[in-house]
Amino acid sequence: MPLRLTFRTPSGNPQATVTLPDNAAPTQAIDVIISLADPVSELVQRGWLPPEGLTAMGDLQRLLFDRDAQGPFIRDGVDLQIPVGAFTPDLPLQGVLQAGPDGVPALTITIVSPATAAPAPVAPAQTAGGTEAAAAISQAEQVETYKTLFVLFKLAEGALIDVTKDDPYLMEPLRRLEKAKEIDINVDKAAWQLSAAGKAHHDQLKQQARQLIARFDIFGDVDDAGSTPRFGTGTGDDWRVAAYELAGTDPFYARFLLGLNDGEWRSLPDWTSTIDSSAWYDTVFAPILAAPGIDDIGRTRLQEAVRHGSDLVHETLEEERSAGINPQRDETANPYRDGTLT
User: Per the structure, how many domains does the chain have?
Assistant: First the structure.
């Protein structure tokens, strides 16, 4: 059975999950971790890292690893923490693995370093689902990451960004996209356009949004007052943010991606300057900060609901397939705009 390692900073952002073959379990933990210092594109090619994890994993690698003539090593001052017990790098990884909600061996490793200790949140210093909302990396870095995604989607929608004019709000996102070879120049229009790689990345992000909708929407209405949790009754509570956290999905990233996916900000006025505004991000992420999380609900209670909900989603899909029905899903569902999560 494969195993999952989730790497995160104390705030949970950035966060990335890799899926490794079962032969990694008896391997020394330090060797497994060092193997993840390879270029993120190679991790994706091996099937260890989903494409949507490229940016987050790259950020985590920069926090975790340094290099010398002999190769990568863990940076001085970095402390790796696990939920239970102490992390011992020279012992086999299997000694600290725990069964995840779906039975897959898993481990969450928190990277604590001087860089992640500096508080500079994008959102106010409140709690998101009962967890610390202080940023793992600088406010500017988080904003640039979201801005880059925003610009990627705008270009996919046909926005024209003049290559002959320097917009101070777009210089860094465009630099990042160009470095990743995700944009090139439309000579006829003298404007930036998505390259083949950029279009592929956009498609991957859209697919990731569809997966978030299919997997987590059921937890938007959870009634666990009885012996068995019920869903979609119209009387339950919205536990989507807590379900994101339990699954190791960054709720702030999920919220932003859902907004991009359904075109929530397609007609945003003065968008180039707006996406540089901390006040705008405060508004965007306010529902996440206000939502109940694992600590508010209780881990055991939440795990029970997630188990039942996930089983129900799976059973429904199987029934539809068996009946020859092509499941129709709302691929642009956005609880943050339709008013179901406020």
Answer: 2
Report mean pLDDT in 10-residue bins for the chain, 342 residues: 88 86 89 90 87 85 86 86 78 82 85 60 43 45 84 96 92 91 94 94 90 92 92 94 88 92 94 91 92 92 93 84 63 51 42
**Residue 89: which of 27, 43, 40, 38 has the closest Cα?**
27
Q: Which amino acid is at 94?
A: Q
Q: Does residue 112 sit in the same domain as residue 242?
A: no
Q: Is 143 exposed, middle or buried (0-12, 13-18, 19+ CB in 10 A)?
A: buried
> Strand pairing partners for 13?
none
**Residue 6 pairs with which residues in a beta bridge?**
17, 108
Q: Does the residue 123 lie in any domain?
A: no
Per-residue model confidence (pLDDT) at position 304: 93
> What was the pLDDT predicted at 319?
81
Distance CA 98, CA 301 (A): 18
Q: What is the domain extent for residue 174?
A: 141-338
Instruction: In whole angstroms, give the CA distance from residue 180 to residue 202.
Output: 13
User: Taking Cα atoms as reference points, which of 58, 6, 3 lies closest to residue 250?
Assistant: 6
pLDDT at 334: 56
Residues 6+ apart with CB under 8 A from 243: 216, 219, 302, 306, 309
113 and 155 assigned to the same domain: no
